[in-house]
Amino acid sequence: MRDGSPPPVPASRRSTPRQRVLVAVTAAIAGVLAAGSIGATLACGGHPASPAATGPRPVGTPPPGRVVAIGDLHADLDAALATLQLAGVADATGRWTGGTTVLVQTGDLTDRGPDSKEVIELLMSLRQQAADAGGRVVPLLGNHELMNMMGDWRYVTPQDIADFGSVDARRAAFSVDGSLGRWLIELDVAALVDDTVFVHGGIGERFAALGVAGINAQVDRALHGQAPPDILGEDGPLWNRALVMAPEPLACAELGRSLAALGARRMVVGHTPQPDGRILSRCNGQLLDIDTGISPYYGRHLAALEIVDGDARAIYPEGTADLPDP
Questions:
Q1: CA–CA distance, 213 with 30 (Å, rounded to integer)
Q2: pLDDT, tens digit, 9 for 90 and up, residues 48-69
Q3: Which residue range is the domain that position 275 belongs to?
Q4: Is position 117 within any domain?
Q5: Residue-wise burial string across 142-176, b where 16 or more C-beta atoms lie within 10 A, e elsewhere
Q6: What CATH number should be reported for the domain holding residue 285?
Q7: What is the 3-state secondary structure (H, E, C) of 286-323?
Q8: How far apart are CA 82 and CA 67, in angstroms?
Q9: Within a domain: residue 7?
């Protein structure tokens, strides 16, 4: 991780009801941190927990065709476009070419690069374009989006601030009433597409018991101060790295229980970058980590996941690789 990003930016002095909610949630999370339930800094760039997004909007039955998933993009437009082209869902100008494909992006569009605004706006545009073409784009919330909306800018680059024109302009854009914040705050945290559940960090057994719709609803309630904030902590779906990093026998046992509770046979996550730039498969294909380090900050390892009729494969610039299927 690198230091030198701006210190956390205070919340706007405008006092709308939604902003007052975020202030209250920030205080609640600070209390959890003080109590030690969110805990210390995580490996591979972990940070204190941040609140998450809104209630359930079911993905439903995907249209005929492929399911493609792309991991953390971290504010690099060039790498984002190159990955979308690699996956065959967009061209170099950001025009949707995926037809009826379902594209899932597992969060972390911002931080560590210069193009937060452009990458978020690209996903906003692709979601509409895909719908018009009979496909679907399912963007999920990552912990870095919420960090930005909560004023935690430790991983924002000076170039990214300059792209907005000023600190104040960037703060306004990420506010809950801003051009980016009002879109981000509506994103789900988890989505079930066919028999695969997608999430940014990971869903442990405790929160899997809620089901996908229940997780999204619980996050929404926590964000509005109507439920405990523990789902927003290090064991929650935005931050959990245990399924990727714990010893495999332990991780696989918990993963099996989580998948059973979620009604899924496979979980796809981002959040934990893989230093070799390859999609990680664990537990005989029941868990796939697609954070290959797409952004130049992590080495620009372009990759996408494709699932067709339950068969998963990795797409790399040099070709495809079959992945285990549960």
A1: 26
A2: 233 333 333 344 443 356 999 9
A3: 17-322
A4: yes
A5: bbbbbbbbbbbbbbbbeebbebbeeeeebbbbbbb
A6: 3.60.21.10
A7: CEEECCCCCCHHHCCCCCEEEEECCEEEEEECCEEEEC
A8: 18
A9: no
